[in-house]
Design goal:
It is a multi-pass membrane protein. Keywords: Membrane, Transmembrane, Transmembrane helix. This protein is an all-alpha fold. It has 16 helices and no strands. It has a single domain, classed as Na+/H+ antiporter like fold, CATH 1.20.1530.20. Helix content is 82%, strand content 0%. The chain starts with a helix and ends in a 9-residue tail after the last helix.
Length: 312
């Protein structure tokens, strides 16, 4: 069992490499990965179930201890990324399906990978987990509302259909994970130890499925989508850090805000796009998943060397 835990840790630490590798393989050999499209929603549910298993009472105590910091993080998450997505769609005059996909990933809550990247960057991990938990729990209401508000000019958006989907894909699995954690107690620790492996395999499969389903469209407009995705992520990371500066947060919290805002739950974006729009609309989420893990790892390497002026 220790070998499985070690493998899980290794795969979790090399997450970005596996996402990139299988995205390329799915592009080159789409027929091999097309069957995975039927499992996008169940795989996302599995990831969210795992999040429920790992959430602790202490994570929510951070919200009570520093409510203003968490509130700033939540507001930054749901204002900066959706706003930048809409602006980029206007500036690049993106086609409707791609525009909706970009806005969709911008309106998603923070991803759990941000917690790992925050730890590596020597940020405030408790704050990171608190913001991720709150944005995820708010997602069933906030995400459909934002998508309806910002994306309706390109394609019809059903708030209630998305609300229902996020309840099923996000909130229900998290609640089941919390219940399982409460019922199993210490016995759940074994499952938690192998969660990085399960999460990486699930995200890799979702990305590969989306890339395979949209291979022809990616070949046609992939460079444009990738440019928008990279800009979107970079703006999120930069403006997230700036939000921390403007609200007078210490360095560790500024690092956290940068990572929390810039890194999205791209698996949710891909699942929602596939369920409610088209495979092409899921491409920005898939490419975002590839890119933000690479950029997050690079940024964390830089941020971990930064020291607060008060520590000098």
């Amino acid at each position: 069992m220790s070998a499985l835990v070690a493998l899980s840790r290794f795969v979790g630490n090399t997450f970005a490499i596996w996402v990139l590798l299988f995205a390329v393989l799915a592009f080159l050999l789409p027929s091999a990965f097309l069957p995975l499209t039927a499992f996008i929603v169940p795989l996302l549910g599995l990831i969210m179930f795992g999040m429920g298993l790992t959430l602790k009472t202490e994570d929510f105590r951070e919200v009570a201890r520093h409510p203003l910091r968490v509130l700033i993080g939540v507001l930054a998450q749901f204002i900066i990324m959706p706003g930048m997505a809409w602006l980029l769609c206007q500036l690049f005059a993106l086609p409707p399906e791609i525009a909706v996909g970009v806005i969709l990933v911008g309106c998603c809550p923070g991803g759990t990978a941000s917690n790992v990247i925050t730890w590596f960057a020597k940020g405030d991990v408790a704050l990171s987990v608190g913001i991720t938990a709150v944005t995820t729990l708010l997602a069933p209401i906030v995400t459909p509302a934002l998508i309806w508000l910002l994306a309706s000019e390109w394609l019809p958006v059903s708030f209630w259909a998305m609300f229902s989907s996020i309840l099923q894909m996000v909130l229900l699995p998290i609640v089941l994970g919390l219940v399982a954690q409460r019922l199993l107690g210490e016995r759940v620790k074994l499952a938690v130890d192998v969660l990085p492996l399960i999460s990486v395999v699930s995200i890799v499969a979702i990305v590969a499925a989306v890339v395979a389903a949209s291979q022809a469209k990616i070949a046609e407009s992939g460079l444009l989508i990738m440019a928008v995705v990279m800009l979107h992520n970079t703006l999120g990371l930069g403006l997230g850090y700036l939000a921390g500066v403007m609200t007078g947060m210490p360095l560790a919290q500024r690092k956290t805000l940068s990572i929390e805002v810039g890194m999205q739950n791209s698996g949710l974006g891909a699942a929602l796009a596939s369920a409610h729009f088209s495979p092409l609309a899921a491409v920005p989420s898939a490419l975002f998943s590839v890119w933000h893990n690479l950029s997050g790892a690079l940024l964390a390497t830089f941020l971990r060397r930064m020291k607060d002026e008060r520590d000098k």
